[in-house]
Amino acid sequence: MSQVSLSTAPPTSCTMEKHSTFEPLSGNVVGNSKSDLGISPKSEQPQALEDEVIVVSEEELHKRILPWLCLTYLVMRIDVNNISNAAILNEEQGDDIKTQLQLTAQNWAWAIACFYYPYGFLEPISTMFIKSTTPSFWIGRIMVTWGIIVCCIAAVQNYAGLISTRVLLGAAEAGYYPGVIYYLAFWFKPEELALRVAVFYSFGQVSGFVGGFLAFAVSFANGVLPGWRWLFIIEGIPAILMGITTFFILPDFPQTAKFLHHRERDVIIQRLSSGAPSKMAKTWDKDQVLRLFADPTFWTFSATWFCHAIGGFGLSYVLPTVIYDLGFTTTALSNVLSMPPSLATFVLLNVLGWLVQMRKWNPYWVAIGLEIVNITCYVLLLTVDVVVVRYLALLVSTATAGSVYPILWPNRVKAAHGTTAAGIAIGITNAVAQFSGILGPQVFLSVYGPTYKVSFLVCVGLLAGAVHDAGMGFRQREAGGMKGRRGEQKNDDGPREKASL
After folding, report:
1. Residue 231: half-sphere exposure toward Cβ, Cα within 13 Å
2. CA 13 to CA 239: how far, in whole Å?
3. How far is residue 427 from each of residues 131, 142, 311, measured CA to CA in Å?
4. Cβ count near 104 (within 10 Å)
5. Is the pLDDT reported for residue 160 higher than 90?
6. What does the alpha-carbon distance between residue 202 and residue 342 come to, in Å, rounded to a whole number?
7. Mean of per-residue pLDDT scores for the chain
8. What is the pTM of this model?
9. How far is CA 294 from each of CA 55, 291, 416, rounded to the nearest angstrom?
10. Which of 21, 446, 456, 474 could disulfide-link to 378, CB 3.0 to 4.6 Å?
11. Residue 501, burial from CB neighbour count under 10 angstroms (0-12, 13-18, 19+)
């Protein structure tokens, strides 16, 4: 295809190339015939055609937004999950964090869980700051503060210091993930989010692979400083540097994106559904919040997120310890064996995201199928004693558990109408997911090892609840209870504005 540019402006780096694969962004604005373009006979001159046709490039948006968000999420999840790798680092030498800080099993469970109390409580508030400030500032601020605090964990000397820094870390990181989902809703329609959220989320799952490798490598640096202290220092510095960079390179909103012409901004804004969040709308609307809480889908999504958080995700926070208790010889090998489940999640999630968005697979049926597979794996872990089989069951269950949320997130976004409602719904829903870190370590206390039969029984019951709740969500959508067909809904923020105005 040939390149098209505005005749009224000199060629810039903003000039876009028309791609036939990017039909969603062009919508009714760009077509393949004169009737599609709405061109009158008078406007058939080539120069007039250049003045009228603005083609927004999907590749340009992806290049500006998604790669950087994926990298920052990878670093964020490494910093969140490094506590599980540190749990057994250099345990054979007596230089592990539990021994040096004299932590009991209950102390350790609280050290993990305390992060999620401020993290979950502050998520709805922090998510709304994406709109009231700017995404580049708020996401960058989150990264810089969490990187500093992660480095400070390397200096703790006792249980009180560990609890204090973990609580501060939870407060600092609150709002990052729901903020990114909210941010993407300013740029893309919910129907276009399945693959994008899957790719973004899958990088968080790769954090287990990268974190396991780093923990394995750092275990050999045990010396002047214990290996676990080096681990927090090495994993905290990148967050600080990337947070500072985010201030300058992340575009904020379509209305203010400097790499777009004003007509290209119009294309992005006008193609969004009427209930999509908008920079021009007011940040807080009480009526939207009241309608959100009255919507039955709000409670269905919250119940699904809660049951899956503990039943599916709780295991991930103690995975290296559970693998070690299966009977593998060294803690270093256990950290290495925590890497394949993360890689399996990355592959499965991207495949499912592509199938949901490109092949129109029903996300609810996909989520229910994943939960059933997860339950099957837990039944195997309850009944089979062969170590290899138990490890493979852990691998599959980790991959399926890590794929449920991103598959359902576009429907969660679609069910909220208006800028305030979308931000609050995304923030609260993700806050509910933090019960995975609050109760998950309690379910998988080491006192239940090495078989963890009580733990897996609890998870089976919760996952059965998640299947029921996802089924209810599907029925609500089919019955019209989900008000996610925004094209048929009243715009809660008022008329959709044009960027050029």
Report:
1. 32
2. 29
3. 13, 15, 21
4. 11
5. yes
6. 9
7. 79
8. 0.78
9. 40, 5, 11
10. 456
11. exposed
